[in-house]
Amino acid sequence: QSALTQPASVSGSPGQSITMSCTGTSSDVGSNNLVSWYQQDPGKAPKLLIFEVNRRPSGVSNRFSGSKSGNTASLTISGLQAEDEADYYCCSYGATSLWVFGGGTKVTVL
Amino acid sequence: QMQLQESGPGLVKPSETLSLTCTVSGDSISSTSYYWVWVRQPPGKRPEWIGSIYYTGGSYYNPSLKSRVTISVDRTRNQFSLNLNSVTAADTAVYFCANTYYSNYFDSWGQGVLVSVSS
Question: CB B48 to CB A46 under 8 A?
Fold first, then answer.
């Protein structure tokens, strides 16, 4: 069960858009639409941002959006705000890999 | 709104068994929509799924931990529990209980409990 690959860090200025990737394999990310994204503040539990590749739970800002192409999923944050500084994790469910998380991306607002 | 709360010792000796309980409030653990899950996160590292259980008791585990893990459910107490045996320092982590909506996503999380393995 290998971790999904995410960039270690991404940064941007307030108001900009940033995108982070999540690369897996045909056994996980590429096998279905069960990709989700989580935001985690230090010392807190992860919080669901995106599920089923591009769906947002109620209460999550529409500045967060998700997409997928082949074995790579992406999370975009539009109109970057200081409060968006956090760690972001992708997650995939696959029939063989079961639940697997990415290594995490630290977002810094410059 | 569903809430989950972990409980258990914060310090376990090497080779012993780590035992944690998650108490669910605001919803029934017998809900047919959810699996009940344990996830751990070593300091500074990614979350790692440990295993999942359905209210009927059916369970499945991370293959890398399967030989040491047991997850059980107590419907009368609206709780589910984790046992991880033969622990080593590598098992030191924040342990979260959570639920997943079928196999789609992690929905609600407990606040997490730091468990250290040390003599």
Answer: no
Query: Residues 57 to 76 of B: which have CB under 8 A from any A CB?
Result: 60, 62-64
Fill in the amino acid letter for B90. Answer: A
* Coil/strand/helix, residue A29: helix
What confidence score (pLDDT) does residue A94 get?
A: 85
CB contact under 8 A, B104 and A103: no
Q: Within 13 A of B27's CA, how many CA atoms are on the CB side? A: 18
Q: What is the mean pLDDT of residues B28-38?
A: 95
Interface of A with B (CB under 8 A): 1, 3, 34, 36, 38, 44-48, 51-52, 89, 91, 93, 98-104
**Mutation for testing the A interface, residue in B35, B45, B46 having most A CBs under 10 Å:** B46
Cβ contact, residue pair B106, A38, below 8 Å: yes
**What are residue A83's phi and psi, to 5 degrees?**
-70, -10
Mind listing the pLDDT tens digit for each residue in A70-109? 999 999 999 999 999 999 999 999 887 789 999 999 999 9
Q: Mean of the per-residue pLDDT values for chain B?
A: 96
Burial class (CB in 10 A: 0-12, 13-18, 19+), A78: middle
